[in-house]
Write a structure and sequence with these properties.
Radius of gyration: 28 Å
Order of helices and strands: HHHHHHHHHHHHHHHHH
Number of strands: 0
Number of domains: 2
Number of helices: 17
Helix content: 55-70%
Strand content: under 5%
Largest sheet: none
Oligomer: single chain
Distance between the termini: 38 Å
Shape: elongated
Length: 322
């Protein structure tokens, strides 16, 4: 997607080259009208967030005023480019050039299909990619809804799906700039107690506790999100706790991304239903208490002791119960 973004910016240069060539060729100012039409069409296709989104919205006065402002801005832009071209032509003493007027118009026009083939604004926004900050702000209101839509395929994965397939699906869905929004949406969806999603929960806990995610703070609060997804399930906490202890020791500066120590103690003191042997439950509780102490120390700027035991394997078996 980043490569497409760069190519779009390159293709957009053709849009501006047309009026410059027309100015250099000594064409009259009447040429600004077709160029303005091309610029407006390009803007409507590549920047849909700047235009009314529905027929009903087009019928409102503010929408017409906003559209008029867009058209006027393109007229000014084309006039400036045309003027710069004529100025450069005058400085270079090029004089009138025998050019077919369709040549500069075609150069500008070809940028429209090229950019459209490379860039779908709505699709890019759903993944968290934007051409600039203005587009990002325009799509901000819809970002949460798009994230909720994007996680539906994950929630539809059966518990019987192979762990490797679920892990790949999670990585593909969250390998986008909008990963934080999608992870938050998953936390909210999996907070419902009537949903098991054991395979999905395990894959999410593993993904959110990867050093590559935690160390650079690629997803804010990923450790707290993973803890919430574990939901007090001791099978998942057996996977989470050793990884969390290793991560807080390695990256104490990321302590704010971890669950609050009080919440860790609360879960450690709780008595959820679990068929784990008593000694394994005791290990999980001790690990949660140790993690609470480590997070508290890191938040206070104190040294964090390295975990006494090695972390669990990257994927631990999790019982799939309804």
């Amino acid at each position: 997607m980043l490569t497409r973004m760069r190519l779009v910016k390159g293709a957009t240069a053709l849009l501006y080259v047309g009026p410059l060539i027309a100015g250099l060729g000594g064409f009259g100012w009447t040429m600004t009208l077709p160029f303005t039409a091309i610029f407006v069409v390009w803007l409507m296709i590549l920047r849909p967030e700047q235009w009314p989104a529905s027929p009903e919205e087009w019928l409102t006065a503010p929408a017409w005023l906003a559209a008029l402002a867009q058209v006027l801005s393109q007229i000014v832009l084309v006039a400036i480019l045309f003027g710069v071209g004529r100025g450069l032509g005058g400085l270079a003493d090029i004089g009138a050039v025998n050019l077919n007027p369709m040549l500069p118009l075609s150069i500008s026009f070809v940028s429209i299909p090229l950019c459209r083939m490379l860039w779908d604004a709505d699709e890019a926004a759903s993944q968290g990619y934007f051409l600039d900050e203005e587009a990002k702000l325009a799509y901000a209101d819809n970002a949460a809804g798009q994230a909720a839509t994007a996680i539906v395929p994950l929630l539809n994965l059966p518990d019987a799906a192979p762990d490797a397939d679920v892990a790949r699906a999670v990585a593909a869905a969250l390998d986008v700039p909008a990963a934080e929004l999608r992870l938050n949406a998953l936390v909210a969806a999996l907070a419902q107690p009537n949903r098991s999603h054991a395979a999905l929960r395990q894959a999410l806990v593993v993904w959110a506790t990867e050093p590559e995610i935690v160390a650079p703070a690629q997803v804010a609060g990923s450790m707290a999100s993973a803890f919430a997804i574990a939901g007090g399930n001791f099978d998942l906490l057996r996977l989470y706790v050793p990884r969390a202890l290793a991560l807080i020791a390695a990256f104490p500066n990321r302590a704010s991304d971890f669950p609050h120590p009080a919440r860790l103690i609360e879960v450690a003191e709780s008595a959820p239903q679990s068929d784990l042997p008593a000694h394994l439950q005791a290990d999980v509780r001790d690990g949660l208490r140790a993690l609470a102490r480590s997070v508290e120390a890191a938040l206070a700027g104190l040294p964090v002791a390295a975990p006494a035991v090695e972390p669990e394997p990257m994927v631990a078996p999790v019982r799939r119960t309804a």
